[in-house]
User: Which sequence fits this backbone?
């Protein structure tokens, strides 16, 4: 049994030199959270999140989407996507986008809101 214990300690010693993954410290990306947790958008349709004109995510009511993005400027556009719910058909809509400046290691949270010009992002508190 003594040899087994010494062998186990030696094996554990090998793993002590392996670096552990950590969320602390500098990162090479920025985190963007887009939420639809509140009922500010009065539609059952899913909302498509377009990053630099590419569909990057879909958000339903009471959900959120998180993106790890490189720092810098990014154009974000929101649009209603066609789906199974009534009234979610393609139509004419405003195609404006918002430009955000993401900083290295920063966490940004936005809520989806709607006004007479269409969907837009509204800065939100992280709440952590």
Assistant:
């Amino acid at each position: 049994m003594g040899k087994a214990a010494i062998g186990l300690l030696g094996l554990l010693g090998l793993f002590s030199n392996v670096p552990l993954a950590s969320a602390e410290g500098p990162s090479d990306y920025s985190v963007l959270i887009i939420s639809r947790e509140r009922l500010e958008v009065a539609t059952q349709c899913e909302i498509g999140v377009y990053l630099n004109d590419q569909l990057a995510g879909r958000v339903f009511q009471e959900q959120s989407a998180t993106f790890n993005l490189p720092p810098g400027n990014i154009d974000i556009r929101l649009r209603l996507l066609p789906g199974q719910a009534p009234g979610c058909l393609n139509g004419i809509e405003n195609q404006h986008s918002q430009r955000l400046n993401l900083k290295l290691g920063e966490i940004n949270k936005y809520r989806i809101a709607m006004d007479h010009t269409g969907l837009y992002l509204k800065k939100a508190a992280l709440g952590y």
Summary: The chain has one domain: 27-123.
